[in-house]
């Protein structure tokens, strides 16, 4: 009888395996306990201190060079439907005219709706 293991909470890989009491992801190396539920994330705040959440709309407050490209994300660019992630670039989003990329929350301001 095979036992179904949950996907990795970090990268959603379905190739997790069990080592003693821990589950391990071979793709990203994340280790977690099966009993540990979702961990509360730290609050992510924009440049003026507003708390951000998934699905918010933000505007860019500074021209940002796109690494590895000659493109620039211009100040005032509106980004809809952000997704918060862990790491240095804590916002995952799709920039109009540029595509999928990560942003730092210190360079955006939440749009009040």
TrEMBL record:
Alphabetical keyword list: Plasmid
Protein YjdM C-terminal domain span: 44-111
Annotated ranges, domain Protein YjdM N-terminal: 4-33
InterPro entries reported in the protein's UniProt record: YjdM, YjdM_C, YjdM_N
Annotated NCBIfam families: phnA
Family (UniProt): Belongs to the YjdM family.
PANTHER family tied to this protein: PROTEIN YJDM (PTHR30305:SF3), PROTEIN YJDM-RELATED (PTHR30305)
Protein name in the entry: Alkylphosphonate utilization operon protein PhnA
Natural source organism: Paracoccus pantotrophus (Thiosphaera pantotropha)
